[in-house]
Predict the 3D structure of the following.
Amino acid sequence: MKNRNVSIFIGFGSLAIVAGGILSAIAAGSPSYVLSWVVAYLVLVVGVVQILLGLGVYRLARVKVSTRDMIIAFTLFNAGSAAVIAGTVIKYTLGTTNYLVGIGGLLVSVAMIVFLRMVRGADKTKWLLGYYFLVDIVLISMVIGVILSAGAV
């Protein structure tokens, strides 16, 4: 296997899905908008998207991806996601604006560039198009989320 170290994305993504499920079960007694949003972000972005990105690197990378690139992508994606979650929770619980969502969105966006770099030179297949589509969706979602968080809309 040329890219075994993608298991960090799959493992952490799986943990995020389980954490989202546990948080959902805990919050079921008194659901709120912000808790529902956190659960959805944990499951869909930190979980599913991260797993798909890791699988994409595994399937598409033509050469062994450096451990350095894997660590950078993993750190940026998860630190950015943590900042987005923290910034959103702060905004909706304390009613104060903060820069965490913007910083988090920027970190996740830079992670997407690293994820693209890891599959450069991949064969032009439907798998690569799907991978590009996923990265595009994440980037567009980050921009929209930062704009909405800033209250510009």
About this structure: The chain has a mean pLDDT of 91. The longest helix spans residues 33-60. DSSP finds five helices and no strands in the chain. Residues 42 and 88 are 13 Å apart (CA to CA).
